[in-house]
Amino acid sequence: MATIAFDPKQLAIDSIAGEAALDAVRLTPDWLRQRLAEQPDWQPEITQDFLSARAVPVRAAVLIPLVQRPQGLTILLTMRTDHLSSHAGQVSFPGGRSEPFDGSPVATALRETEEEVGLAREHIEVLGCLPDYLTGTGYQVTPVVGLVTPPFELRADPSEVAEIFEVPLAFLMDGLNHQRLSVELPGGRRSFYAMPYERFYIWGATAGMLRNLFHLLRA
Fold first, then answer.
1. What phi, psi does 168 have (nearest 5°)?
2. Which of 86, 174, 204, 206 could form a disulfide bond with 21, CB atoms 3.0-4.6 angstroms apart?
3. Is 77 helix (H, G, I), strand (E, B) or coil?
4. Is residue 95 within a helix (H) or strand (E), and if so which, with residue range?
């Protein structure tokens, strides 16, 4: 399994994506429902990050949980514990590998979200899915987009989740907050995105999926 042998926070920023922030109407539940239902003509910018060590990727799914707060939508994210075998200590969406009994990526995302952060599925309105994303650790991940309605209770699984936090969707859907970086690896030079927010460093697959959500909502 691939191991990331560098600290992305120590790398120089190559450039800033720089697109204008999405206007307020594109950051609403109604716009999200419309975009996911219609699937307008758009192309994902990123469908994989670092080269995978697996010949056949393992299927997985994550939930992109958009929480409906009075001040606007936020995205719920987790900080993974340091002892995990993949993506340890990184910011990620709740989710994990698919099991045969799941039946669909949506079922996987809802089950894993409930297991990892205690968010019950009755609080989640599934809107649709983004294109699959291949991670360097060998997972083919389906990002499932869902609206989350408060109030709800969260309960982090201490074996997987060190912290649960939220980031304003408006911050993440602003190209001025999208940093481009690159690193030389045995398989060649690889580029990736980072979206630092306060003390949280959002990068890699999570930032790549957010970048694709940005393009969908712009379309």
1. -55, 135
2. 174
3. strand
4. strand 95-97
For the whole prediction, is pTM greater than 0.90? yes
Residue 172: phi and psi, rounded to 5, are -75, -20
In total, the chain counts a number of residues equal to 219
pLDDT at 1: 38
Spatial distance between the Cα atoms of 90 and 81, rounded to a whole number of angstroms: 8
Classify residue 129 by its DSSP letter: E
Q: Which of 141, 85, 135, 132 is nearest to 108 (CA)?
A: 141
In CATH, which superfamily holds the domain spanning 13-218? Answer: Nucleoside Triphosphate Pyrophosphohydrolase (3.90.79.10)
pLDDT 10s digits, 13-44: 999 999 999 999 999 999 999 999 998 889 89
Q: Which two tokens stand for residue 58?
A: 């393992």
At residue 212, the 3 state secondary structure works out as helix
- Side chain identity, residue 85: S
Cα 71 to Cα 21, 30, 122, 125: the distances in Å are 17, 16, 22, 19
CA distances in angstroms from 14 to 178, 181, 184, 211, listed in the order given = 11, 5, 13, 16
Q: What residue type is 187 in one-letter code?
A: G
